[in-house]
Design goal:
349 residues; alpha/beta; 5-stranded mixed sheet; 31% helix
Length: 349
């Protein structure tokens, strides 16, 4: 689980952020120096926000240094101008820097004022945070608000509980996919896994708040994986499976949905089953995390090195079995009988 780093903004940065909210600044770059958040650069508006975007933003992104970018749009809400909050964490930057910036991100947003932030973007490549990248991000988020959809689906759950007879032995999924949003720490964990900074994530549903919450991201070896599976509650797991296949070293992300039999309520089983598809869609599409294999298990005892290897690399049948002539009936058929033909007068020959 992500922890606060203790890094805070300097008084000079706090004052600048406060003044910038009035609209006099188009872009603010914030960096970490000497364990403090400081002003890295800023730009005043020149043209419309979309015309200023690439020519202001892209030159400030360094290939090996993370940073935060606050970019002012021309639209306003009740609190004033709306801003984009961009987290830049290039692949070539040191791992410690990536983790430090990831853990301090919430502090920057708090210092600026979360109510002014309209949208957030994370990028490791310039095309992720360029103007076209932002347009793609907006397009992917154009679906109805997740919480509204969740409220509608939860109403449907209550209707189904009344109208539908659900057998204890039934595993039939009766609900469409729910869209519980990923809580902020869970989002950060997904990004850290994508960057290979962590190798395990465990998530749970907060049914009251209708969110997907982070449980922990403890470093996990393959032999420890079975012990990470709870015996009394469902969970979602992402595991970075490091192994060799046909002489190549591979790191494959495996998604594991653990549901401990019928120790859980029917409602809990239905919710976890229904939220799974939407969660995987968000992880694969919005976070661009490639998942090599999706698995469902009842308990951790099922997990082993052999099972994971066979799931990620299933054996391919090299040839089709030739048609085999069916065997005759079982048992001996007896000795063939010789039948003599009859003569002209009916006597035996």
């Amino acid at each position: 689980m992500a922890h606060q780093t203790g890094i805070n903004a300097t008084p000079e940065l706090k004052e600048f952020l406060f003044k910038a909210r009035n609209g006099s600044v188009r872009l603010i770059k914030v960096v970490i120096e000497d364990e403090q958040l400081v002003l890295g650069a800023y730009k005043e508006p020149s043209r419309s926000w979309d015309q200023d975007y690439d020519r202001f933003l892209l030159p400030l992104l360094e290939e090996d240094e993370p940073c935060y970018i606050l970019y002012r749009l021309d639209s306003q809400n009740a609190q004033g101008y709306e801003w984009l909050f961009i987290s830049w964490s290039p692949d070539h930057s040191p791992v410690r820097q990536k983790m430090l910036y990831a853990a301090t991100r919430a502090t920057v947003k708090k210092e600026f004022g979360g109510g002014h932030v309209k949208d957030e973007i994370f990028g490791t490549l310039q095309e992720d945070v360029s103007f076209l990248g932002y347009q793609r991000h907006v397009s992917s988020c154009s679906a109805p608000a997740p919480l509204t959809a969740a409220e509608q689906e939860l109403q449907q759950i209550k209707i189904n509980e009344v109208k539908t007879e659900i057998s204890v032995e039934s595993k039939h999924q009766t609900l469409q996919g729910l869209a519980f949003p990923l809580q902020e720490e869970a989002q950060r964990a997904i990004l850290l896994l994508k960057q290979r900074n962590i190798n395990y994530i465990q998530l749970k549903l907060d049914i009251e708040r209708e969110t997907v919450e982070l449980v922990h991201t403890k470093a996990t070896e393959l032999g420890e994986l079975p012990h990470r599976i709870p015996t009394d509650t469902p969970r979602y797991h992402f595991f970075l499976y490091k192994h060799s296949h046909e002489g190549d070293y591979l790191e494959s992300v495996v998604f594991i949905y653990s549901m401990p039999g019928y120790k859980c309520s029917i409602k809990e089983r239905m919710l976890y089953s229904s939220c799974k598809s939407r969660l995987l869609d968000e992880v694969e599409q919005d976070f661009q995390l490639e998942i090599a294999k999706k698995m469902e298990i009842d308990n951790g005892d099922e997990l082993s090195a052999d099972l994971l290897y066979e799931e990620v690399h299933p054996k391919q049948q090299a040839f089709k079995q030739a048609f085999a002539k069916p065997k005759g009936p079982a048992g001996k058929r007896g000795v063939k009988r010789i039948i003599k033909g009859a003569g002209e007068n009916g006597e035996d020959r």
